[in-house]
Amino acid sequence: METTNDGAVDYKTTTQQQVQARFYTQQPRYSIKDIPYNISSSVTGKELNDLISRVLGLAKDVVKFDFLINGQILRVPLWEEIEESKLNTEEVLPIEYIVKQSAPLPRDSIEHDDWLSSIHSNTNGQVITGCYDGSCYLRSIKKDCLLLAKISGHSEPVNSVKFIIPDSQEDYVDFLSASQDQTISLWRVDQTDYQSSCLVRFKGHSESVDCLAVDPECTNLASGSWDNLLKIWSLRSQDDEIPETSSRRKKPRTGAPPVPVRTPLVTLSGHSGPLSGLAWGPDAGLIYTASWDHTIKVFDLNKSLCSRSFLSNKVFLAVDYSSRNRLLAAGSADKFIRLYDTRVEEPSTLAHPSLTGHVNWVSGVSWSPREEFQLLSGSYDGLVKLWDIRSPRAALYDLSGHTERVFAVHWAAAEDASFSVGADSHLRVFSMSSRQ
């Protein structure tokens, strides 16, 4: 056995050293007796999995486990984790084990006529996609993504789509679409005949509108644009709405009322580059904005000002907030996914190590609606990755299938399914099976 100058064991040259470990789990059905076990410092997660299975009397690979040491999933030989985390092996090493996430299963792949920019779902088992042909496509998740309605009305590509009330059980669904034609439209689709109508058009941006977000109460809409501005709009009827008169729009059907135009409640500046992503915070008073100016800003809507900023050296392309862990995930042009703790006051505090694995711009992020530590990402490298943020150096799984850049990802709560769209004009769906 060799030691370093401070007396610690040098595991680089002594990988067969014995370590005492205590194994525990938060899942009672798989718990074992709380006693120390002598294990080799060279063991890997696979060997620890075999050990726990033997103690439980399980057949090989019936249930697979991941192992957490110092809050990180073990992806390297044990001695490397001990050395990197500077753990004291004079004491019994606590190791938590969890049931391993099952691999997502391919479900559907639907081709469209043009690039797909955006995706969102509701709890009625429906999904809406935004397309570069200026249209939106409403589909039934439960019926193999059967096309229910094609909604056209924008004169340029659609950049973002959002259902307003994802859990609505009405006989209609409402959703929003933002476009390069500088406008946002509020649509209503009847659930009996799937006829659509434009209820309101939101006007105020002077450049392409790239991102939308609806507040938790579904009363306000936020939009971000290439004019560098954040605008907040009311989703409730307003007395000062005026009929649309733009000659660029198609004339309404005979007898149909003109589409009213709504103006923003407030316009907020602060970014020096286009806005690329939006996410509401834990209430309707905070919103996070990602931008090409290398910053994420936090806007306090009660005070109408920017309260703090997260800084980077590259463009931010996507952002998503999790109410489960209060973390903000951000995709960047430097190929990393950064995780910020929104509860910490320091302006650029990373809550966890950055997630590394993509080899091109990270264009989309989406937190799991059920699992606190799981996240989806999409990239210009054509891959969608499923992450456990406790394993920052390697994704759990790659969800392959896209042949071009991925533009957006979405994790649907109702169906426990993932959706991704991109430059290959395909909507791809995976079943996100839960833990074993």
Structural overview:
The protein is 5% helix and 44% strand. It is built from 2 helices and 34 strands. It has helices at 45-56, 78-85, and strands at residues 18-24, 37-40, 65-69, 72-73, 93-99, 105-111, 116-121, 126-131, 135-140, 146-152, 158-163, 172-179, 183-190, 196-203, 209-214, 220-225, 230-234, 242-243, 260-262, 266-268, 275-280, 286-291, 295-300, 305-311, 316-321, 327-332, 337-341, 362-367, 374-379, 384-388, 397-399, 406-412, 417-422, 426-431. The strands form 8 sheets. Strands 11-12-13-14-19-18 form a 6-stranded mixed β-sheet, with no helix packed on it. It has a 5-stranded mixed β-sheet with strand order 2-1-5-3-4, covered by helices on one side. A 4-stranded antiparallel β-sheet has the order 6-34-33-32, with no helix packed on it. A hairpin with a 4-residue loop joins β7 and β8. The chain is elongated. The two termini are 40 Å apart. Residues 1-14 and 246-254 have low confidence and may be disordered.
What attributes characterize this protein structure?
6-stranded mixed β-sheet; 5-stranded mixed β-sheet; disordered N terminus
In spatial order, strands of the major sheet run 11-12-13-14-19-18
Structural class, by secondary structure, is mainly beta
| Number of β-strand runs | 34
| Low-confidence runs | 1-14, 246-254
Major sheet summary line: 6 strands, mixed
Relative helix content: under 10%
Beta content comes to 35-45%
Number of helices: 2
Global outline? elongated
First-last Cα distance? 40 Å
Radius of gyration: 25 Å
Q: Round the mean pLDDT to the nearest integer and report it.
A: 90
